Amino acid sequence: MFDVIICGGTVVDGTKAARYRADVGITDDRITAVGDLANAEAAAVIDATGQIVAPGFVDVHNHSDGWMLKEPLQASKTLQGFTTEVLLLDGIGYAPVNEQTWREWFFYLRSLDGLRLDEYEGWQSIQEFMECVEGRTTQNAMMHVPYANVRSMFCGFGSAPPTPEQMDAIKEEIRIGMEAGAVGLSTGLDYIAQCFSSTEELTEACKPVGEFGGLYVTHMRYKLGMIPALNEALQIARESGSGLHISHLKAVKGAGTDELLAWLEAARKEVPLSFDVYPYMPGCTMLNFLLPYDIWEDGPLAAMEKLNQPGVADRFEESMQRFMFDTNKIRIAWLPSKENSHHQGKLLSEYVASTGLPAGVALVNLLVEERLSVLCVYLEGDDRAIDPFLQHDLYMMGSDGIHADGGSIHPRQFGSAARLLGRCVRDYGLFSLEDAVYKLSGHAAERFGLKDRGVIREGAIADVVVFNPDTVSDTATYDAPQTLAAGISDVLVGGIRIVQGGAAIEFGSSEKLPGRFVKADWQGSTVR
After folding, report:
1. What pLDDT score was predicted for residue 440?
2. 336-362 pLDDT, tens per residue?
């Protein structure tokens, strides 16, 4: 007697193996049979006739940290088939924190991860934060150790390098995080605190990660230039003994596709290597990313006062010009105030024109009015330019999704997995459906130490997606970004159905949801 039988479907098992016809039996939270179960009994039956049965999808790069506490169903992700979110990316997050830093991080992350200061629940370690997530969401969650958080706890937000004693404390905190089940150390070297870190500092910080066989997961130092930034990341991984995972890798200004692909082939011979990217060319991040680094020296809260210093607006505008950010191609995605909400969806050039002020002055004023919380979508490039990276065998899915209620956000939050399964397979013919499912499940599970997940087989955790290969598609666009993916009929997490008939299931307020804090299992991983 099974709890659930998924019958009549075609299994694509997450290993790149050819699809095959089979039923899937589930007992408690495990897959307990794969085969012909026509004569078996079950408490519930899911008819998957004409559909694909696949492992739950893993989003290895996202900004769901706050939303997993605020939005239990997160339909924008579950209706794409994502059953596991990997959190605390880009070296920044809501943990670890202490009494001196937690308000700074909540303030800084307002436009990225969504929490307000009154939503803080008192956690300090990443273990405590993840325990808050456990059972409050329909999705599983994994974690990184975000480097800027750790650095700020022991060194503040300034540019001074850590003393030997501070570095010992940093490494111990990272080691604690790895022992708690972290995938590895994440960095975002264009963002606060860590932007001041030297290559040598980061190498030293990664040594505890190397001891565990974990990963150095990096939003590289893009302002250094693509190839120099990649070479720095490679050096850090090689000298620390960690594996290397590059976040949102794609050809941008200063480096072509062929050059990046050649770099990947050379680098994989030196360290265990992988990367993620979302299947779109335009990007999305906070507008304050373009502020001069010294603005952040005393932390995000103090940065507000520094915006009034002479020359800041000019330096902001110079930064836009130096990095070739065109206000005609940058859209205001979200900001918190009701007064400015009508500007959401406007190009920065349109906003600037409406003020009658120079661009630098207008945009710094906007950052002051919105207390630094302005999210932007950078509408540059052809989505098809990503194709060679999606096809690469080192690639896995990272949506880099950033959600905001009512915002003109990037469609990657609602469409990434469905786009890979739909148009990238059916319309573009970039790879087989078996390869697409592997990029969404098995590859991430192997690489990120996810034991017994990312595969359909007996004994595996019953994170399962059922979808129609002929109709699965992304419907979100840059003009209408908050529209749900189509073609995903059923999703189970730990054997519990969270999507049924293409709609997220509503759980009672007192019910413990099936999402779990999932720890990296490096002992059982194939990374090392």
Report:
1. 98
2. 999 999 999 999 999 999 999 999 999
**Mode of pairing for the β-strands spanning 184-188 and 145-146:** parallel
Position of tokens 């706050």?
Answer: 66
pLDDT 10s digits, 18-27? 999 999 999 9
The pLDDT score that the predictor gives to residue 510 is 74
Cα angle: 504, vertex 435, 35; to 5 degrees: 70
Above 60 in pLDDT, residue 303? yes
The tokens describing 49, both together, are: 């006739």
pLDDT of residue 527: 44
Tell me if residue 191 falls in helix, strand or coil.
coil
Residue 528 has pLDDT above 50, yes or no: no
Q: Are 5 and 46 in contact (CB under 8 A)?
A: yes
Cis geometry, peptide bond prior to residue 96 (ω within 30 degrees of 0): yes
Q: Are 407 and 375 in contact (CB under 8 A)?
A: yes
Which two tokens mark 223?
Answer: 């302002």
User: What are the strands of the beta sheet with 140-143, ordered from one edge?
Assistant: 57-59, 82-87, 140-143
Residue pair 73/138 in contact by the 8 Å Cβ criterion: yes
Token pair in block for residue 346: 């406007």
Q: Is 353 exposed, middle or buried (0-12, 13-18, 19+ CB in 10 A)?
A: middle
Compute the distance between CA of residue 30 and CA of residue 24 in angstroms, rounded to an integer. 10
Asked whether the beta carbons of 180 and 172 are under 8 A apart, the reply is no
Decide: 380 and 282 in contact? Cβ < 8 Å: yes
> Cβ contacts of residue 3 below 8 Å, gap of 6+?
26, 27, 28, 42, 43, 44, 495
Count Cβ atoms within 10 A of the Cβ of residue 167 and give its class: 0-12 exposed, 13-18 middle, 19 or more buried.
middle
* Greatest C-alpha distance within the chain: 78
CA distance 232 to 224: 10
Taking residue 266's Cβ as centre, other Cβ atoms within 10 Å add up to 10
At 159, the amino acid letter reads S
Torsion of CA 346, 256, 402, 437, to 10 degrees: 130
pLDDT band (50, 70, 90) for residue 253: low
In the chain, DSSP finds a helix count (H) and a strand count (E) of 18, 23
pLDDT of residue 322: 83
- pLDDT score, position 526: 44
Dist. CA 141–CA 525, nearest whole Å: 18
> What 3-state class would DSSP assign to 302?
helix
Question: 486: which DSSP letter?
Answer: B
The identity of residue 171, as a single letter, is K
- Here the tokens at position 269 are 């011979």
Q: What is the tens place of the pLDDT at every residue in 85-127?
A: 999 999 999 999 999 999 999 999 999 998 999 999 999 999 9
Q: What is the pLDDT of residues 54-66, one digit of tens each?
A: 999 999 999 999 9
Say how far apart CA 525 and CA 528 lie, in whole Å.
Answer: 7
